[in-house]
TrEMBL record, chains A, B:
UniProt source species: Phytohabitans suffuscus
Presence of the UniProt keyword Isomerase in the record: yes
Annotated protein name in UniProt: 2-methylfumaryl-CoA isomerase
Organism classification: Bacteria, Bacillati, Actinomycetota, Actinomycetes, Micromonosporales
Keyword annotations from UniProtKB, A to Z: Isomerase, Transferase
InterPro entries, per the entry: CoA-transferase_III_domain, CoA-Trfase_fam_III, CoA-Trfase_III_dom3_sf, CoA-Trfase_III_dom_1_sf
UniProt key word Plastid: no
Chain ranges passing through the membrane: none
């Protein structure tokens, strides 16, 4: 395993779907040794869409890179005993488990502490009361779908990004490293529980939603593509492209007015309205009017001219791209990042795969690589962690505990 | 400062807006000593909406809890010298800086290493080439707005949650703890750069978007409120409520068919279509038809009956709430979490504030509390970290370096 900031950390990953796997993958990218343990043949997330023509899951491959794969008969006592032995493996940085298993008494923290008294365990769940929840139900319950979409929508609009899963995964990853840090200092392990619904509602609290209701009695309403609390709007160019333009600071605003040659109209409007658009709150309050004033400048110009002018004026803007264009062109997010390499996935094809998103100067991160196949490292990990010899491995295979 | 898994970590936070502050707040909630350093009077994010009637920012208060606040004249050399002294403070766990400052040569990593050779510094930026970007421009550029919203939309639909900011903040927090871990082992510091645009495009890669285009030539299209790759749909009840229902596993699907009394129709449809809805891919392919079949069951019943039936059948579902209802009722996300306390904010009002989202059994986390006022801890931190006496503090005040 490559060395890195988290080298020396050995994580047993029994998590599935997005939250856990995305978090443990970040740990692996930072140099941790992450061993994903799956049932024989793979867990319920092994075949999730999108699939490659060979039936393998491109989604699974994307969320499980840089991990080793151990596959065991987790329904049987012998397979579970192997998991316990892996957790009991002595040494600093071992004895760490991430799971989202539901109703699995054999993964009970207190039971597992019997084999590893200083176990660090992160349990990801839907809700604090044990009832299930997933990203889409949680997102509905915190109210964002009623605030998303065109102002004249009469239905809620779901998000497409599983943001709550991804945030939960990073909270789990951070908790692993934090708990291991304390364990190194005190010798004490920790049971950490992180619920998707808690992540969502605490995040909305951090962003001021609860306070705004309690203190101001505010009822948030749909604002379409406007940015809440400042001035930001999407515009269409003459050739049908759309771009997002943001004036987050007073300087951004001054540049935007200048480049769109709107100073005289804006001044006259300010006078008529008794407003001062150099103040963020006034820009936000009059966002519809401002967009109406600026619109003709954008719709009279093709994208290339608009972009050229905005860039020269240092206005903050972004293209609305299509996801299939993420790696198309020298300005594409993939090309611009420099974090991606074209990686050949045998039997599937070649496509760009990113390295760690945190760029560290003093460390060469692991190269982007295909994810392991299910059970690819069973023998290797059992030999390495448990000093299992050929005879023992053959016995486990013969007993159907491994393949 | 309360002790916790990250006690002993001392972070100087010069970050603003959402990404940095949200990440450092999580560090503080896990027990790190986070000192936010602002210019005199506060940074550009100090007055962001929503505001309380007294003009204070509820948004700022939500993102900066559990931190101490130091305020300095950062435009002048004397104030910057104080920051350097704070970073140079000897001792394990000191010498950590998080910033999103742009074009500030005095915050150059190599310059700061002159005062603290093992400095850990996280620099959050928009794009790798130094050009600015914010959550809304980055989201446009990775293509999600064209996939969000009703299938008949002709315009992109922005998300409301600043998901890229929040994910970037957690990546930054994880990087701080990871880099400090390596520093304890090797004595080496680290410069870590995290760009919003990288976070967005690597995340979409992890979720399989790039692979799907490269391998399958897929062009993703809008799917409204359906869940990608499985069966999930929103439904309206007789009394006008909306709920999200998900069949992520085969067992979920079986329960949903049973509770909606749809088994006979579903069987007949499977036969007619040559489909097998016990398979996830077939459910996903025929999602429109399935929703049409199930719709009448929901629209014939009031919400309370629907929920009662779904709950008893253990179907995975969630209400579409409004953000202003987050803390309303015993089933509300706030009440259910148990992480919130009603906290009095002097001059503002009382509203619910959450503790850390990661629940740890062996640790009493810091109690939810109001955020500091700008500069509230200037004297305290300078005395504690720099052993500044009353005479020195008075001198700094007299020179206008502090207030």
């Amino acid at each position: 395993m490559s060395s890195g900031p988290l080298s020396g950390l050995h994580v047993l990953d029994l998590s599935t779907f997005v939250a856990g796997p995305s978090g443990t993958m970040v740990l692996a990218q930072l140099g941790a040794d992450v061993v994903r343990v799956d049932p024989l043949g793979g867990a319920t997330d092994t075949r999730r869409l999108p699939l490659a023509p060979d039936g393998s899951s491109l989604y699974w491959a994307g969320l499980n890179r840089h991990k080793r794969s151990v596959s065991l008969d987790l329904a049987g006592e012998a397979g579970r005993a192997v998991v316990r032995r892996l957790l009991a493996r002595p040494g600093d940085g071992y004895g760490i488990l991430v799971t989202n298993a539901v109703n699995q008494p054999w993964l009970d923290y207190d039971a597992l502490r019997g084999v590893r008294p200083d176990l660090v365990m992160v349990h990801i769940a839907g809700r604090p009361d044990g009832r299930p929840a997933v990203d889409y139900t949680v997102n509905a319950e915190v109210g964002l779908p009623w605030l998303t979409g065109p102002v004249d929508s009469t239905r809620p609009v779901n998000h497409v990004l599983p943001a709550w899963d991804l945030l939960t995964g990073l909270h789990a990853a951070l908790s692993v490293v934090a708990a291991d840090r304390r364990r190194r200092a005190t010798g004490r392990g920790e049971l950490i529980r992180i619920n998707l619904s808690d992540v969502a509602v605490t995040t909305l609290a951090h962003l001021g939603f609860l306070a705004d209701t309690a203190v101001n009695g505010s009822t948030r309403v749909r604002e379409g593509n406007y940015l809440y609390g400042a001035y930001g709007s999407d515009f269409a160019t003459k050739d049908g492209h759309r771009i997002m333009v943001i004036a987050l600071t007073d300087r951004h605003w001054a540049r935007l007015v200048e480049v769109t040659e709107a100073a005289a109209v804006i001044s006259a409007l300010e006078e008529r309205l008794g407003a001062d658009f150099s103040r963020e709150r006034h820009r936000y309050a009059h966002r519809d009017l401002i967009t109406a004033v600026l619109n003709p400048w954008f719709s009279a110009r093709v994208r290339s001219e608009v972009v050229d002018r905005l860039e020269r004026a240092h206005v903050l803007w972004g293209d609305y791209r299509r996801t299939e264009e993420l790696d198309v062109g020298p300005d594409s997010p993939v090309a611009a990042s420099g974090l991606f390499e074209a990686v050949d996935h045998p039997g599937v094809g070649t496509y760009p795969v990113p390295g760690p998103v945190a760029r560290m100067r003093g460390w060469d991160p692991p190269r982007p690589a295909p994810a392991a196949t299910i059970g690819e490292h069973t023998g290797q990990v059992l030999a390495e962690w448990l000093a299992a010899g050929e005879a023992e491995l053959a016995g486990l295979r013969a007993a159907g505990v491994t393949r």
